[in-house]
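Aggregate trends can hide what the representation actually does to any particular protein. For completeness, the protein is quoted in full, as a sequence line and a line of structure tokens.
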Amino acid sequence: QVQLVESGGGLVQAGGSLRLSCTASGRAFSRSAMGWFRQRPGKEREFVAAINWSSTNTYYADSVKGRFTISRDNAKNIVYLQMNSLKPEDTAVYCCAADAFRSSWYRDYNSSDQYNAWGQGTQVTVSS
């Protein structure tokens, strides 16, 4: 079981950029599929992006496609979320998540139920 810690959140004006980092402990990280989710206060958690262990497959929510990029560096045990052209509606707590990589991930990568390890989250606030 891996432990995940996010960083990089903050306050930014609309149109600006942020890069979130998720640092993992444990040797199992390299074989884990990773996802980013976000949650607005009082609202349900929603899928943002996901990446498989080898970085050969990435997936994005329609709302962030073309603006956000997920990547990972297995040698450093870090997964990134580069966020460009930020909008006020991107304001949320962003959490990274990991699962034991299974074939079902290719179907359920956008479901929080697919993941079994979560970070504490980092706040992103985008002003208008």
Notes: The CA atoms of residues 29 and 103 lie 17 Å apart.
